[in-house]
Every structure is written in structure tokens, then in C-alpha cells.
From TrEMBL:
Record InterPro entries: Spore_V_AE, SpoVA
Transmembrane segments: 27-47, 87-112
Pfam families named in the record: SpoVAC_SpoVAEB
Keyword Membrane: yes
Name recorded for this polypeptide: Stage V sporulation protein AE
Keywords: Membrane, Transmembrane, Transmembrane helix
């Protein structure tokens, strides 16, 4: 049942993204930003963590979880270190994922010949 819930919730995120692209004619960049900001707002309101608890990877894998990670990191560090923690918390929580994307992207560019 957990797999079905994760599939449905993750699929709903994809449906929302596809609607933004097809019906509202947003560019892929605008769609990505909209989903990240939506995740950030839901995280700030305390609604994204219960969604992750309910849907597991269906909510933690889509790009909206990146927005949630930014907000949760900023809020957590702000409680510990004040206003400076808002800036450092964003980087602390997301640095591993961003670093991995940069490193793997660089390795892929060395292995494969990009067309351009």
C-alpha cells in the first residue's frame, strides 16, 4: 500500500507540473520555480512534513521537496543561531544534493560528448 500511495502522490505532483506547462503555458523554468516555491510555502506552514510522512518518496523525491528542505533548514538554524542561521541553514541542508548534482554532471560531461 505504501508504494501505491507514493505513486499516486508523486503522480499528482507530475500532473500539477504538466497542467502548468500545458494549460497555463508556463516555461519549464517557471514550472520548476512554481513547484519549489509551493514546497517552500507548504513547508513554512508545516504541511509538507506530514505529506512526507504520509506519502514517503512520493513527496520527498519531487522538486517541491527542495523548497521544503530550504525552508526547514532555514527555520531550524534560525532557532539555533538567529538571523544568520537563516542563510547558513539553507546551505547546510541542501549542500549535499547540490554538490552531488554538480559532481555527477561534471563526470557525465567527461564521459559523454554533449551535442550543441
Amino acid at each position: 500500500m505504501d508504494f501505491l500511495i507514493a505513486f499516486v502522490v508523486g503522480g499528482l505532483f507530475c500532473v500539477v507540473g504538466q497542467i502548468l506547462l500545458d494549460i497555463f503555458k508556463l516555461t519549464p523554468a517557471h514550472t520548476t520555480v512554481t513547484l519549489v516555491v509551493t514546497g517552500a510555502v507548504l513547508g513554512a506552514l508545516g504541511l509538507y512534513e506530514p505529506l512526507i510522512q504520509f506519502a514517503g518518496a512520493g513527496a520527498s523525491i519531487p522538486i517541491s521537496s527542495f523548497g521544503n528542505a530550504l525552508v526547514s533548514g532555514a527555520l531550524g538554524e534560525a532557532e539555533r543561531n538567529g538571523l544568520v542561521g537563516v542563510l547558513t541553514g539553507i546551505f547546510e541542508v541542501t549542500s549535499a544534493g547540490i554538490s552531488a548534482a554538480i559532481i555527477f554532471g561534471f563526470i557525465a560531461s567527461l564521459i559523454f560528448k554533449p551535442k550543441g
